[in-house]
Design brief:
heterotrimer, B: Alpha-Beta Plaits, 3 strands, 47% helix, 29% strand, C: alpha+beta, Gyrase A, domain 2, elongated, disordered C terminus
């Protein structure tokens, strides 16, 4: 089972004095031992399997073994975020391992005493490096973190070299955060993130080359953090942060409870809004963005991304009512977007989403603003009949009038409302009302078959469908012998029509495609790599007065059992969407292109509706 | 033309793996491959058939893990 | 089957690339074996068997992205941890009982974990002959006073010189 870690700060005193120390202003504050004991118990009550102490430097506290022992007595594993100096004592390491020490995240900022000691402003290298020898080979979840500042950015390969003798020790390079010492010494310490990205990528490549052919294979032992993913091409999956380490919650000294681990100190600027990598990307540290802006970022627009995510069942609680079970459990530890409490009869189920395909902001929006979360009541790897397979989840009436309504993760209940059928009725009506020549962009699934077949049969509609997937076109030809179907992408079609070089399809004996009375983009808008290319070709595709109908689905979340999630996430399904636009984003793009399109109808996604939106325009050139 | 079918067998000790757990795991993985369950000398014998030998092996492995996880869960719950 | 290099004889390489680990019942109670193997399910494929003497045999195959030696190492570690935890649990039971007896003499019920929080868990501090567990401020204030050890580098903006350690 994957451990779930709770991070407990025990105080901010330290035996090093890193130039970039995050807690520079509070180094004099040390927590009371009893506060840490209380939080160890709270971590257990919240269902965590490991408590990890951090600081400051937790190993300089005389209560260290007592805390470890307390955690072990409660059946918790124990971990440390540390500079490691005290762990150069073999006896201490042995004692901690006896008390279930399982995880160590150790800071080493240079491969030599000269660099490391400069960074931590102490004679620490020998002890920190000595700790690595003590901890390696014990089967611990042990990794080394190297914070990258102006002082060591040209010496990262030295850290790689220093760790080569320890085949079980992964190494992470972290962009320095402009906080505490990092903020007050900004100009001395903070290098351009693009430069850091380049040097980190080189160090990773160097490390891989030095360990290539190792037996047993060393695996992917080098990672990075705090660097926007667009600056690490080919190494995006080496991204590493508190969440990839299994941290769910954390608590600072003086805080009354645990709070979710979040990315509130970072920002994804507006430039990143449509980037395919935005789900897992850390973005930029806010203070860095305020100083340098976003000019170094290069959003990636051409990679497919997921359009759904799973909430996986973690625990079930008995609803003892009348007091709200979420309030009783305490509001603080639950993430606004990623946790989900569902009331089903007398039981309240707690789900959590650990997806990195979506950012916290996106997940919160799907759950709270768009209302697109569903209970998966099917036994399928991927639900394909939403009306039967999914039950919509709505905020429970228990929450009505609650003073915590807006900040709370909320209690939800399934409702058996036919949202999918209801919203599709309008699309079916529109398809049924078509007359003349119709171009269906992305027709592959072949929806509304019975409506279209009868319209074509009686000569009301002349139908042309395009889809980029030859196997889908071939399958559809079997079902729709009455249709003219072409294997091409919307962008290719647009390119050849807008340049006036329309030609016969090599594999198709049909005549040139011509202009249409209606263009349909039904659930394929978000599959288009460049929707603007299609829009810009409309003058060659639509007759004056013709209509453009855009229908698509926004992202949604599914509450699922562990088995359902496991099956779905290990399945073969790939991503097909290039973005998860809603009606607002599509309408904004149409607006930016200043096309002669007159909006006839708009239906956006909102709570109480399905995740399907609709826009209909008339082509009205002057 | 018929393709050859690969077969992988799992023998799961009846005192370790509960019948309900093995059945639950078989039910889940029946969607992925042809899975049969029988008994032999105190063992549950699960046979996985698939055209792709690698897939048969993987399904058998995953099925074994699920059955073990469920069996341990059930044991813990019973205590 | 051949032994797995670097591991005890009870670890045998299988012909199919996996490994069999024999867990003697005298050392590893069933509870510990279950606990340890459960923890490995997300990193490896595990099959448990039991021989005539009641010893458990853990058959392990690493999942994609994992190496055999790593998962075997983890199993070893988890087994030891589980045994250790069982012992700790037994010791905790003794502790609970002793506190309960004391509490009963005062005519109160079985103590909660809150009561145990006041119990002395300490080990009498850390053994630190090199005085590593001294805060930076305390150490360098003292050093300045004694003028015996220079502060290594207090100006974050300057480069390390050859004299730096």
């Amino acid at each position: 089972m994957r451990p779930t870690k709770a991070l407990v700060k025990v105080g901010y005193g330290c035996n090093d004095h890193c130039s970039f120390c995050h807690t520079l202003d509070v180094r004099h504050i040390q927590g009371e031992a009893v506060e840490v004991h209380r939080k160890i118990r709270r971590a257990k009550a919240l269902g965590h399997s490991m408590v990890v102490l951090s600081g400051g430097e937790p190993t300089i506290r005389p209560e260290l073994l007592a805390w470890a022992k307390h955690a072990a007595a409660l059946g918790l594993d124990f971990g440390l975020v540390t500079n490691g100096r005290m762990l150069s004592y073999p006896k201490l390491v042995a004692a901690l391992v006896r008390y279930r020490l399982r995880y160590v995240y150790l800071s080493l900022h240079g491969g030599t005493a000269k660099i490391h000691n400069l960074m931590v402003r102490s004679h620490a290298f020998e002890q920190t490096f000595g700790a690595i020898a003590q901890l390696s080979g014990r089967g611990l979840d042990f990794s080394v973190n190297c914070v990258v500042t102006k002082h060591n950015v040209e010496h990262l390969e030295g850290v790689v070299d220093a760790l080569l003798p320890y085949p079980d020790v992964p190494l992470k390079f972290s962009m320095v955060e402009p906080k505490g010492g990092g903020k007050s010494l900004f100009d001395h310490l903070i290098p351009p993130v693009e430069h850091v990205a380049r040097r980190v990528a080189e160090a990773i490549e160097y490390g891989e080359s030095r360990t290539e052919g190792d037996a047993p294979p060393r695996g992917r032992w080098l990672s990075h953090g705090g660097i926007p993913l667009c600056l690490m091409p080919g190494l995006e999956d080496r991204f590493d942060d508190l969440r990839t380490h299994g941290f769910d919650t954390m608590t600072e000294i003086g805080e009354p409870d645990f709070f979710p681990v979040d990315d509130d100190n970072k920002i994804q600027p507006p430039k990143c809004a449509r980037c395919s990598l935005s789900g897992a990307c850390p973005g930029l540290y806010t203070a860095y963005y305020e100083r340098f802006g976003d000019q170094e970022l290069r959003p990636v627009m051409d990679r497919p991304r997921s359009n759904s995510f799973n909430y996986t069942l973690e625990a079930s609680l008995v609803d003892n009512g009348p007091r709200c079970a979420v309030l009783t459990a305490g509001l603080a530890p639950w993430e606004y977007g990623r946790h989900l409490f569902v009331k089903r009869g007398d039981v309240i189920e707690r789900y959590r989403s650990r997806t990195r395909d979506f950012s916290d902001r996106e997940i919160s929006s799907v759950k709270h603003e768009r209302g697109q979360i569903y209970l998966d009541v099917s036994s399928k790897a991927a639900p394909d009949d939403f009306a039967r397979d999914l039950l919509a989840l709505r905020r429970s009436s228990t929450c009505t009038g609650c003073p915590e309504f807006t900040g709370c993760t909320g209690l939800f209940e399934p409702v058996d409302a036919p949202v999918f059928e209801r919203d599709d009725v309008r699309v079916r009506e529109l398809v049924g009302s078509l007359r003349g020549r119709v171009l269906d962009v992305g027709c592959g699934e072949g929806p509304y078959s019975e409506v279209l077949a009868s319209l074509v049969a009686d000569g009301t509609v002349d139908y042309v469908g395009i889809d980029p997937h030859p196997e889908r076109i071939a399958a559809l030809r079997e079902r729709w012998p009455w249709a003219r179907l072409i294997t091409t992408t919307a962008e290719q079609l647009a390119a050849r029509t807008s340049t006036g070089h329309e030609r016969r399809d090599d594999d198709d004996a049909d005549p040139p495609i011509g202009r249409f009375d209606h263009v349909l983009v039904l659930r394929s808008w978000n599959h288009l790599r460049e929707p603007q290319t299609l829009l810009q070709a409309l003058d060659a595709l639509l007759v004056p007065g013709g209509t453009l109908t855009l229908v698509d689905n926004e992202a949604f979340g599914l509450a699922r059992s562990k088995e359902q999630s496991h099956r779905a996430e290990s399945g073969p399904a790939g991503f097909e969407h290039y973005r998860n636009d809603g009606a607002e984003q599509a309408e904004a793009l149409v607006g930016r292109l200043s096309l002669p399109l007159e909006l006839l109808e708009a239906e956006a996604v909102r709570p109480g509706r399905s995740n399907q939106w609709l826009l209909r325009y008339r082509w009205a050139p002057s | 033309m018929s393709s050859s079918i690969s077969e992988t067998s799992l023998r799961l000790h009846g005192d370790i793996y509960s019948e309900a757990s093995v059945k639950a795991a078989v039910a889940v993985f029946t969607e992925h491959s042809t899975v049969r369950m029988s008994q032999d000398a105190g063992y549950w014998v699960v046979t996985v058939e698939d055209e792709d030998p690698e897939r048969a092996r993987l399904v058998a492995h995953e099925l074994g893990n699920m059955a073990l996880g469920l069996s341990i869960d059930a044991g813990v719950a019973a205590r | 089957m051949t032994a797995l290099r670097g591991f005890p004889n009870s670890y045998s390489l299988r012909d199919d690339g996996g490994v069999d680990v024999l867990c003697h019942a005298r050392i590893y109670p069933a509870e510990a074996v279950f606990s340890a193997t459960y923890a490995l399910l997300d990193r490896s494929y595990v099959r448990l068997d039991r021989d005539e003497d009641g010893n458990h045999i853990v058959e392990l195959h690493p999942r994609e992205g994992e190496t055999l030696r790593e998962v075997v190492g983890s199993l070893t570690n988890e087994l030891l941890s589980a045994v250790c935890r069982t012992h700790l649990h037994q010791r905790k039971e003794v502790l609970l009982e002793s506190v309960t007896l004391a509490a009963m003499s005062g005519a109160v019920g079985r103590p909660s974990l809150d009561d145990l929080e006041d119990f002395d868990f300490s080990d009498g501090g850390l053994d630190d002959p090199l005085l590593i567990a001294t805060s930076w401020e305390e150490k360098y204030e003292r050093s300045k006073a004694l003028a015996t050890e220079p502060e290594p580098e207090s100006d974050a903006g300057s480069e390390p010189d050859e004299e730096s350690p």
